[in-house]
Amino acid sequence: MAKVIGLTGDHAIAYAAKQCDVDVVAAYPITPQTIIVERFSDYVANGEVKTEYVCVESEHSAMSACVGASTTGARVFTATSSQGLALMHEILYIASSLRCPIVMAVVNRALSAPINIHCDHSDMMGSRDCGWIQLYSENAQEAYDLTIQAFKIAEDPEILLPVTVNLDGFIISHCMEGVNVISDEEVRKFLPPRKAVYKLDPANPITIGALCFTDYYFEIKFQQEDVMKKVPAKVKEVGEEFGKITGRSYGLIETFGLEDAEVAVMCLGSTAGTARVVADKLRKSGKPVGVIKVRLYRPFPTQEIVEAVKGLKALTVLDRVATSGAPSGPLCSDVKTALYAETEKPLITNVIYGLGGRDISPENLEDIFNDALRTADVGRVDRPIKYVGVRE
Amino acid sequence: MSEAEKPGSKSLPIGGILVKPGSSIEYKTGDWRAFRPTLDEKKCTGCLICWIYCPDSAIIRKPPIVAINYEFCKGCGICANECPVKAITMVEEGA
Amino acid sequence: MCSGCAAPIIVRQALKSIRGPTVVVNATGCLEVATTIYPYTSWRVPWIHVAFENAAAVASGIEAAFKALTKRGCLKEKIDIIAFGGDGGTFDIGIQALSGALERGHDFVYICYDNEAYMNTGIQRSGSTPHGAATTTSPAGTVIPGKPEWKKDIVGIAAAHGIEFVATASPAYWSDYIAKVRRAIEVDGPAFIHVIQPCILGWRFNSNEAIKIARLAVQTRFFPIYHVEKGQYKLDIKIPKPLPVEEYLKPQGRFRHLFTPEFKGEIEKIQAWVDANWARICQLAGEKI
Description:
The complex is a heterotrimer. Chain A is α/β, with parallel strands linked by helices. Chain A is 40% helix and 20% strand. In chain A, strand 14, helix 11 and strand 15 form a beta-alpha-beta unit. The radius of gyration of chain A is 21 Å and the shape is globular. The mean pLDDT of chain A is 97. Chain B is an alpha+beta fold. Chain B contains 2 helices and 4 strands; from the N terminus they run βαββαβ. In chain B, the strands form 2 sheets. In chain B, strands 1-4 form a two-stranded antiparallel sheet. In chain B, strands 2-3 form a two-stranded antiparallel ribbon. The radius of gyration of chain B is 18 Å and the shape is elongated. By secondary structure, chain C is of the alpha/beta class. The longest helix of chain C is centred in the C-terminal third of the chain and has 22 residues. Chain C is built from 11 helices and 8 strands. In chain C, helix 3 packs parallel to helix 5. Chain C has an 8-stranded mixed sheet with strand order 2-1-3-4-6-5-7-8, sandwiched between helices.
């Protein structure tokens, strides 16, 4: 039976991992991920889970232990943030290449220097090509729901790829919300125990992590490209199945007001909530605005985005990540690439915002929408990249 | 096998795993050899010192003595050097 | 592997003492590279390589998973775990992961095959390279005679974690080594074995001499064979009449420069280090020198 309990985003993730009955958690504490590992430690200490919790000495070892555990056929979970994700970077690629269906919560936080513990997406964006499926959540509810779905996506024998569930540091991780949780039985029915396709098994001794030279490396990497093509349909399928149990169905992107919008804002994570509230207000005053929230960032849902922006005159893509030297922020670059072959496409502006946890206010978003309307009006982009919320 | 004959990504096991244990047995290293260990079966006492020290599993137990597997022996000469009764001598290949 | 390499001897001897189903974890290095060139593998046990510095962490994860799967009844038999790492992957880049795994008490055996430099990348010095050895990053120049620093006491570091069994071994003394691997497997918790591994390319000796050199290392007291069980040191191979360290250095090209007149004092320094190290271990083991 579903019930509503008060949970922070981090706690919701830990609660989901508990319900998913994971075999191994190997994690290292880092703000603002700590609540996840602390709550999970409580579950272990109170005998609420059968999980082996390995308190490793670094994130590098956390991911290494996760890879080792995953290759035995176990269900594996970890969580990190910022510098921790950066320290894991090397092993992230190995986890996906060895096809380990690990689920990791990434509580998004700015990268040093200067050291800062608050939200932006620089951490995950720094590892965006690591071969992991990447989901972004808007609130604690979505963080909970996506964590349960993540295991089902990751462990599907057709997929076998690791998944990150991203949630905005502090904004989601530390804010208490009423979260609709489903029962342990419902989770188990939705997510049966993992059936490994291959594993470290003395009865069938395989070699994992062999040296591949020029004659095979490309083929092995190409397999990863191939499997990524299957991911969007799987994410959709799992999101819909989850909807049947909970009434909360999930797709690759989520749109608001697009049916008659002339301009829209696109973003990842918690900002979508603010953008929706502002758009709603503007729409009530007759302004044709909409919102596109990207839930599945890798693999990039090109087709869905191409469809979603059809008919828009202007699109503003929000990137919560430092872009020094890049032609635009990562989300915006991806959108532009996705739309390049289209004959009709909106005028695109990129907004960089919210670095190091700088708030984006409803007023900021109202300005952004109004700028987009102006762009649509004049029919050209005056500044392709704008920084919002920074003192110059 | 030529490049074109090698299997493509769709037919290879996922993740670069190797499913056939000990498949390197198909990869013969005997042709690396410049010197060939030759066993004097009359001298060999079957003590297995050469067997325990051979880096390439090229000494085979053949009680009461041993035999040399030339398909894999790289000719390092450790066996000859360590044999307590000097039952193995290294002879130049092709000599 | 190179013709005459001692690493496969060390692995073969170790695997002769396994007691049942065993998984092998391998750090990046010569052993990993040479035994698993796709699409071939030399391994007949389940084997995994993840990266250079994390063999102990990977083993930790595997051990935790086996425990979890056993608790659930998904795994019926006990599976032993042996991790192999070279000196680079153990003394240097992998020491953090190793220390973490030893502290956490995972039940696995870590065998360091120590060829005293980064041989797989072309003989660069490591924290294990002995004083005076020439490597490509500690070359014997006209001013500096090879590596100026001394070898790290990895056994002392491992033992300081308070784990039950830590040992040194030489493939030349195979019965001692094999017994130690078995003991290490039987210990409930982590065990660490440090094995000297002469490298024909990096140490520059003849291809038939690996065992001879592994024996000379012991007979000159350069590489003492001992173990530490529950904190107690014990000398396993007593060398009442040691050969001078020169006998060990002489056949190795990496020490050749020490025999030139300008660096002659270096051999005396190495002999003094050998004597002091031997005295230290004898004292810890309660032996007369």
